[in-house]
Specification:
Elements (H helix, E strand, L loop, with lengths): L2 H17 L3 H9 L5 H8 L6 E3 L22 E8 L2 E8 L10 H17 L3 E7 L8 H17 L5 E10 L4 H5 L2 E6 L3 E3 L3 H8 L5 H5 L1 H8 L4 E4 L1 H12 L26 H4 L10 H8 L5 E4 L7 E8 L2 E8 L10 H16 L4 E7 L6 H5 L2 H14 L4 E10 H6 L9 E4 L4 E3 L3 H8 L1 H6 L3 H15 L3 H6 L5 E2 L5 H11 L18
Parallel strand pairs: 3-4, 4-5, 5-6, 5-7, 6-8, 11-12, 12-13, 13-14, 13-15, 14-16
Antiparallel strand pairs: 1-2, 2-3, 9-10, 10-11
Helix pairs in contact: 4-5, 13-15, 17-19
Amino acid sequence: MAVNEKSSELQRLKDLAHLGGGKERIEAQHARGKLTARERLNTLLDDGSYEELDSLVTHRTVEFGLDKQKYYGDAVVTGYGRIDGRPVYVFSQDFTVFGGSLSEAVSDKICKVMDLAMQNGAPLIGLHDGGGARIQEGVVSLKGYGDIFLRNTLASGVIPQISVIMGPCAGGAVYSPAITDFIFMTSGTSQMYITGPDVVRAVTKEEITHEDLGGAQVHSTKSGVAHFAIDGDEDCLAEVRRLLSFLPSNNMEDPPASRPVDDPARTCDDLTSIVPEDPAKPYDVRQVIHIIVDDGDFMEVHSAWAGSIVVGFARMGGRPVGVVANNPAVLAGVLDVDSSRKGARFVRFCDAFNIPIVTLADIPGYLPGSAQEYGGIITHGAKLIYAYAEATVPKITLIVRKAYGGAYVVMGSKHLRADINLAWPSAEIAVMGPDGAVNIVFRRDIEAAEDREAKRKELVDLYRQQFANPYVTASRGFIDDVIERRDTRLKIIRALEMLENKTDSNPPKKHGSIPL
C-alpha cells in the first residue's frame, strides 16, 4: 500500500472513530440537550490542547452478535490536554456507542489515563454518561470496574479527581465517582443510582421517576452525593475549570497563587452592619465571606445541602484558601449529622492538597434530639473533630459571635492545632450560652428573687461580662488576638503570609482509624 493510501486509510479510521455511534445517535444526543463526548472535551480543555489516545481501540467480544458491532474507540474517549495552561488527564464516556456502557476495552482505556495522571502528577477528570457494565461481557466488565475503583482509591489524596455526571450513571458506575473528590451533575439530564426505577418497582413496589430517584436536584439537596448541580453541559464544564483554578496539580505542590488585584489591606466596614451584635439574631455568613475574600469570589461547595455550615474555595491576598463557616441563617448554625460530614470531608480534602483552612465560627452547639442521636451524631460529629485535629496545613480561625461547649473545640480551636485564633470583641466563648448557664448555675437564686425575670436578666448580664467574652479565653492564650471587625481581612491575610512555610506532621502510622 502506497504512502498516500496509508494516510487515507488512517484518516478513514480516525473519521470513523470521531463519528462514534453514528450521525443518528449524535443527533439524538443533541436532541436531549447534551453534547457528544468529544464536544465536551473540547469545551472543557484549553483550545487546541486536547490529544486523544486509543481512538482505534475496539472491544474484543464476539458473543451475542457483538462481533458484528464494533466502533473505533469503543464507548469512551480518552486523552490529555490543558486547563489554564496546566496539564490534565481526561476520559469522556460516549453514550452514542452501546449507551456508554463499560467493556473490558473501555476499562483499559480509562485505566491507562488514570495511570498516566498518577505518574505525571496531574488532575484526572471523568465525564460520565453511560448505562453501567456491558451485560454482554459479563464478569469481564465487572472486573473493569474493580480496576478503576482500585486506581481511584490509590490516587485519592495524591491528585485531584473530579467526576462530572452528564447522563445516566447506574449500578457499579456510581462508585468510581463516589470515591473521587468532587462530583458535578448537570440538572435535568443526569442521574445517579444503584438500581433504577424499574428494579425499585419490582423489588419494593415503589413508583418513582429517574429524576426523583437520582437526579441532580436530589443528590445536591437531599443525599449530599453531588457537590454541584449546574444547568447545561457548557456551564457545568466551565465550573469544573473554575474549581481547578483553586487546586494544585498534586499533593506535592502548593495551590496556584496569583498577584492580588483586591488590596490585602482593604478594610471591611460593612461587617459592622451585616453581623448583628445580638448572638441570637440570624444572618447569612456568605455575606461575611464575600466581603473578606478577594474580589468577593467564593466558589461554594454543597451550596444546597447541610446549610448550617458553608464550605468552599476563595482567595485571600492571591492565595487559595478553603473556607469553613457556621451559618446562623440555617438552624442557628448548629452542627448536625449532615453538616458534620460536609465539613469533615472538605477539611480533609484541603489538608490533602495543601490548601490553608480559614474557619469562621459562630455556633451554639450540636443539634439536639432523638433523630440526631439515632442518626449517629456522635460518630459523625467526631469526624469533624478528627479532620481538624489531623490537618497539618495552615489553620486560621475567627470566632465571629459565639462558640459554645464542645462545638467551640470542634470548629478549629487552638486545642486542635489551629495556628492563629482570632475573635471579634463581641465574641462569646463559654461552656454554654449565658441564658442556659444562668438557669443551671443560679437556679436557686432566681427562684428566691422577688422579681425572677429581673434577677435572671441581671445574672445573664453578669455572666456575659465575666465569662462569655473573648478576653478570658485570650488571657489563657487560646485566642491569639481580639480584633476589630473592619480589620478581619487584613489580619487573616497577614496570618496566611506568616504561615506560608509552615511544616507539621502526624505520628508515623499506616493510616488513622477515622470514625466512619
